[in-house]
Amino acid sequence: MSVDYDTATINPALAVSGVSKTYRVRGRDRKTVTAVDDVSFTIPPGAAVGLVGASGSGKSTLAKMITGSERPSAGEIRYGDTSVGRLHAGGLRRLHHQVQMVFQDPYGALNPLHTVEYTVTRPVQNFLGLSAAQARDRVSELLETVGLTPASQFAPKLPHQLSGGQRQRVLIARALGSEPALIVADEPVSMLDVSLRAGVLKLLADLRRQRGLSLLYITHDLLSARLVTDEILVLNSGRIVEQGPTKQVLQHPTHSYTIQLLNAVPNPFAATAKDGK
Predict the structure, then answer these.
(1) Contact 22, 33 (CB under 8 A)
(2) How many structural domains compose the chain?
(3) pLDDT at residue 79 above 60?
């Protein structure tokens, strides 16, 4: 049975309940691989949750299920009163009005033939139904919002004329074009130079505070999650192995896998944790 937003009351709160995703491996033995295994969590309105794990831990698969491009093999994902896994066509379109994704690769996620203005205009017109003149004004506002100023200078540019950080800001502006309540940011700074990462993370934190957005921040870097999240979920082999307030998980990790992730990067909180502060 297909569920559409016309028959459901929506509010910006995400609930993931006992969700699993398995894939069948090609071959005679019909083996299956479990990418996500019995995951449950919620994102209240206005909250920011970090989903942290190494490559292959199931983070991106979970993001695809939350945004409706994959269906769970078991369990349920609900956005407000609507079951995301039961949506089709029009229902998914309405979901994407409220739930938008910022992708990892700012170089591959933009069409090289389309200008910045065209890229950001598409969701504005598709979801908000604005006239051409209204859409142009709205695009200018969005470019200014994400720090691409003056907007008139960036609007006519093509992706190859932008830096990696500027491209990522265009992707964020595009995600904001539908006026979503929840943004799923999948490794949004992992392909950027270190010098650019702090600026993009600050932008996400500022947007969340100013607009009351909910945020699912997906990363392999526990320390970057500190800048934008309230709570951290640590995912290993498709299962949540540790979760809690961000500061608590960083300073007092309890699972060996979490400790491994922290040890993989310089940890300025290590001395604080040892001192018990």
Answers:
(1) yes
(2) 1
(3) yes
